[in-house]
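User: Can you predict the 3D structure for this chain?
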Amino acid sequence: MLRWNLSTKVVVAYSGLIALMAGALTTTLYWQFRTAHQQAMHDRLLDLLSLTVPLIDSDYHSLTLTSKDKDKPYYTINLKHIQTVQATTKGVERIYTLRPQGNGQFNIVLNYDPNSKQSVLVGESLKELTPILLKEGATLSQPKVEKYLLKNGDDKPVLYGYAPIKDQFGRLEGILAIELDASSIVQTKNLGRAIALVIFLSILASTIIIVRWLAQWLIVNRTLRLNEAAKKIANGEWHQSLSTESDDELGELAKSFNDMAQQLESSFLKLGEYSQTLEQKVEERTQELSQTLVHLQTTQAELIQSEKMAALGQLTASVAHEVNTPLGVIRSATGNIITALNILLPQLPVLMQRLNPTQQAAFIALVNTSLQQQRSLSTKEERQLRRRLQTELDALGLVEFQEIAIQLTLLRIETSLESYQPLFEAPDCDEILQVAYKLVQQSQNAISIQQEVDRAAKIVFALKTYSHRSSEAGEKSLIQISDGIEIALTLYQNCLKQGIEVIRKYEPVPDLLCDPDALTQVWVNLIDNAIYAIGKTGTLEIAIATQAGQVVVEITNSGAAIPEEVMPRLFEPFFTTKPRGEGSGLGLDIVHQIVQKHGGSIYVRNQCGGVTFSVIIPLSEYTN
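Assistant: Here is the predicted structure, written as structure tokens:
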């Protein structure tokens, strides 16, 4: 295995940091240099388009239809104009005009490319379309330039620009296209890359040389002397002293080392004295601790029962609040259904009698389609759907297409509208669409009631399961370990929904032979602590997996890290970091005891972005 000395590590660390900063600097300079040049060419092409478009007569342009028109004066006049622009402007590869055909294709009208050996006919279809032509060629309203460089038919990098040719009424007659030579941009890019690389390598080389010298002089030599003195002390040579002339951190370390050497010598002498009376003191202390432990276990059992009852009381209040929410939704939805039925029951038969069979079929199809397509839309999506419907309705020749489009948007109708045209042409179309919308709303109310009933049933089941106690203490059964976790999450749903995101990473695991009620208490305590650590907003991640014949459950919260000095005491009885009155310090002790009774273990560790509790329980021979 490769081993690096301290000097090499310091050089690598500092050089890597400087290299990162130099790389960021040179990359920024390179992109600024390249972007500025390309933006200048972009602006130049926009100006050229704006100056050239007025030179093209739109009326003459509209008369040019076939190759026979090349000899006509109206073709020659416009062609001379673009030839003049090409001749007086540096870097113009080709100038031509296009006419949109309505099917996504564009025909060439005027064309001037002195460098090309191929002739282009009037009316010939443009073979390769650029992104601007593909996206908005038929609706182009102002000059635009392609964002990226492309290659023309001669495999040469060019920058494409387009400008609309409008007639006297402002309608799009054609499109002016100019190909600007972009070879200079490519050359600039290559030059900038080379300059950036040279600067980066120069900075990196200088940094390595300087840092190497400083590390050897300031750190490595003094550290080696400290290491040599430590080895001598390990061999029993207590009289070691280091120079403390410098006032930096290594100087402070040398002073501390000298003090440590003196204390070690003193402690070694005392250790010999203590070893003679140690056995007697240990025996006396063991008896005292045994008596204290018996008393502590008795008291702890009583406090554990009290802690569980207090937790159950808090959970009951939270669950009562959580159950009240779906009841409110059910009450509101039921009221909406009753109100709507009082209106629809007398209105619907009369409406159906007024409709002919074709309109009745269209009405039923409209309601069924809306029921199948009910989904939530953002404000932007609703606006886009309404505009599309207005366009289709207007194309069908409907006068009140805007009002109809509003109703259809509420119904979420996105399919072809021809099948509903008999309804749209009815005199009372607005009333028909309102009745259809009310019918669809009742279906949505019924779905809301079903969802909230399921939600309330899930909460009640979780509370019932948590409050259940086995007839015999420690009674075991085969369960899926995720069931108890979901019960705990349901009980704390009122706290989690305030801004805590729950991430589940459940892998398939065998059923576990365990005490379900006891393990549920484990998950309740761990999730309660995680919610407290997270606060108002954050993430709670729960992962389940199997590893080496064991089930591993990891509960990670995004709260603050646990201080290292607190870690060894987390599972001690009565130890808590919560303010007075908010915790008894028995939660994690209860968890530790339950996990141990199942032959498992529990660990906690800080990690980037949170704290993870890992519960490991072995699979028994009875596990499926």
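The mean pLDDT is 76. The first strand starts at residue 92 and ends at 100.
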